[in-house]
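Chapter review: from sequence to fold.
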Amino acid sequence: MNGLMRGLVLGGVQVLLVAGVGAKFLLDRVNYPKVWVQTAPYDPDLPIRGRYVRLMAVVTNGSPESSVELERVRLAVHDSRLVAMADQAGSHWLNKRSCGAQSCWVLTEPLAYFIPEHVPDPSIRASGEELWVEVTVPPTGAPRPIRLGVKKNGRLEPLTFR
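The token string follows.
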């Protein structure tokens, strides 16, 4: 096998690997629950962060009597809400923090949502608007962002980037 053939075979293997990952994510969207989640935008202010928005997912704590600031949880979808249930074997961490005038629970690991180069940062919202994200919730691993939306006057409107 000459160099050209080796290069073509390697390129074909790489295309198959990328296509396999894409196919897995598409199957996950079909098979696992999707839910809209309120976010608390988080920007670590890194100069080489790229064109994405980091979002802290605000979740409902399934153990509201919990007085700890940080706890291990597993995620589930109940009544169209993302709920965190206390679970020492869970794969996520939940942190209590201030969200405006009240406290809320957020996942400690932020979600990354990639945006096109030409659009302004969607995490900068006008007063009275909240940024939400629709996510797929797999049984293991972090929620996977699908699309962003803005909630204003109680109405959730998905964002479109053109």
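Two observations follow directly from the output. DSSP finds one helix and ten strands in the chain. The mean pLDDT is 85.
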